[in-house]
Amino acid sequence: MIFKKCGSLKGEITIPGDKSISHRSVMFGSIAKGPTRISNFLQGADCLSTISCFRAMGVEIEQNGTNVLVHGNGLRGLKEPKNILDCGNSGTTVRLISGILSGQDFPVTLTGDDSIKKRPMKRIMTPLTQMGAKITSVKDNGCVPLSITGTALHGIHYNSPVASAQVKSAVLLAGLYAEGETKVTEPALSRNHTELMLKNFGADIRSQGTTAIIRPAGELYGQDITVPGDISSAAFFLAAGLLIPGSEILIRNVGINPTRNGILKVCRDMGGDVSLLNVQTEGEPTADLLVRHSSLHGTVIGGDIIPTLIDELPMIAAMACFAEGKTIIKDAGELKVKESNRIEVMVKNLTAMGADVEETKDGMIIRGGKPLCGAVIDSRMDHRIAMTFAVAGSLAEGETQILGAECVGISYPEFFRDFNRLAEK
Ligand code: S3P
C-alpha cells in the first residue's frame, strides 16, 4: 500500500472496541454461568481467534458484527477440544487461555502463526508450573506449541520480573481454580482490565498497589459489557492530528483507564493540544479526545509510565521525529518481544525514511526535526508498525510503500478506510 503527503485531517471518528477488553469479555463470559452480552466487540483477527478457541471447547457464542452473545458454560464446563487450539497471532489468547486451561480436567495443545511461535512463553510457564500446572513447550524452546494437561492447582505469591498484564492475568485466571490465595506483584502496574472485569463477574479479587490478589471462585456470573474504544488504535489519530498541519479531529469513545492512558500525558509533555470532552467515569472510564495540530518538542519517556503506553511506543517514536529536539525512550525492553522486535523495526524503518534515531539497550534516542522522506517499509506483519508508518508516510516527502499492510486486520480492520475518510474532508 502506498502513502503520500496528505492535507489536514478534519472531522470525527469513532474508535473500534478495545482489544484487551474484547478478549477478556469472551474468555470470562465463556467460564461464567449464564449469558454475557458484549457490545462494541472488536472484530479484529486476534479477538476472533479467542472466539474460535472457546467455541472449540463447547461454548456457544453468537456473533453478529460488534454484538456478541456468549452462553457461558460455567467455571468447570469447558470441554476437551477435538483439535489443537489455534491462537493465530494473538499473544493475549495464548497466555490468558493457558491460565484457564491449567485448571481444567483435560489435555489441550495451543499453537499459532509464525510470529507467535517466536514469542516467549516461559514467562507464563514458570509461575503456572509453580502453581502445580502441567505445561510444556512441545519443541522445548519456551514457545508455542504448548501442551497443557489440566490438573489441581495451588495458590502462590508470584513476584513477576516483568510488568505484563498477560503474565499477571494468566496467574490470576489459574488462581480462580487454585486452592488458597494467589497473589501477583509486578515491578510497575500493567493494565488492570482482568482485575476490574473479574470483580464484575463475581470473583473474589482485589488490588493493593502493584499486587493483585485472587481467591478461588465457586462460579462467575455472565455480564452485560460495552467495550470502550481502544486507546491503542486512537493513538494513530492522536499522532496524525497533532502532526499534520491544519488538522482538528474529534476521536469519540476512547477508553482512558489510567493503566492505559500514558500516551495522553506524553502528547501533552511534548506540547500537544489534546483535550478530554464528555468524560464518563462509570466502569471503564471513557472520553472523546479533541486533538489539534501542534508544534511538538522532545521529551523523556521511561519508568512506571512504560506499561501504560507500551503498545503506543512505535507511534510515539515516529511522532518524536517531527518534534524539535531530543526524545529518549528507555526502560522499554519489552518492545523486543511484541509482534515484532519493535525497537529494531522502528529504528530500521525510521532510518530508511531519513530520521536521526539510535537504538539503545532498552529503547531509542530520537533527534527530531529532520524532514522524513518516503521509503519502502517492511511492516514485518506487525499491525502497529503498519499503522505507524501510514501516519509517518502521510507526513513524508515522496512515496512510502508499506509491505504487508493488510496485517492491520489484527486490531483495526477498517483503519485505512477511516484514515482516508478524515483526509478527504
Ligand atoms: C495485553 C497486554 C500487553 C499488550 C498487548 C495486550 C493484554 O502485553 O502489549 O497488546 O491484553 O493483556 P504484555 O502483557 O506482554 O505487556
Key structural traits:
12 helices, 425 residues, 29% helix, alpha/beta, 27% strand, UDP-n-acetylglucosamine1-carboxyvinyl-transferase, Chain, binds shikimate-3-phosphate, 5-stranded mixed beta sheet, 2 domains, 4-stranded mixed beta sheet
What does this entry show, briefly?
The chain has 425 residues and is of the alpha/beta class.
Instruction: Write the CATH fold name of the largest domain.
Output: UDP-n-acetylglucosamine1-carboxyvinyl-transferase, Chain
Helix content: 25-40%
Into how many domains do the coordinates divide?
2
How much is the radius of gyration in Å? Answer: 21 Å
Give the overall shape, derived from the CA principal axes: globular
The tally of helices reads: 12
- CATH H level, superfamily name of the largest domain: Enolpyruvate transferase domain
Which residues form runs of ≥5 with pLDDT under 50? none
Strand count, sense and barrel status of the largest sheet are: 5 strands, mixed
Q: What ligands can be seen in this structure?
A: shikimate-3-phosphate
- CA-CA gap between termini: 21 Å
Q: Can you walk through the features of this model?
A:
The protein has helices spanning about 20-30, 45-55, 90-100, 120-130, 165-175, 195-200, 230-245, 260-270, 315-320, 340-350, 385-395, 415-425; strands spanning about 1-5, 10-15, 30-40, 60-65, 65-75, 85, 105-110, 135, 145-150, 155, 155-160, 180, 180-185, 205-210, 210-215, 220, 225, 250-255, 275-280, 285-290, 300, 325-330, 355-360, 365-370, 375-380, 400-405. The protein has about 425 residues and is of the alpha/beta class. It folds into two domains: about 1-15 and about 230-425, Enolpyruvate transferase domain (UDP-n-acetylglucosamine1-carboxyvinyl-transferase, Chain, Alpha-beta prism); about 20-225, UDP-n-acetylglucosamine1-carboxyvinyl-transferase, Chain, CATH 3.65.10. Strands 3, 4, 5, 16 and 17 form a five-stranded mixed sheet that branches. Strands 2-18-20-19 form a four-stranded mixed sheet. β8 and β9 (about 145-150) form a beta hairpin. α1 (about 20-30) packs parallel to α2 and α3 runs parallel beside α5. The longest helix has 13 residues, at about 230-245. The model has no long low-confidence stretch (mean pLDDT about 95). The structure holds shikimate-3-phosphate. Shikimate-3-phosphate binds near residues 92, 166, 190, 310 and 334. The site of shikimate-3-phosphate has 11 residues, from α5.
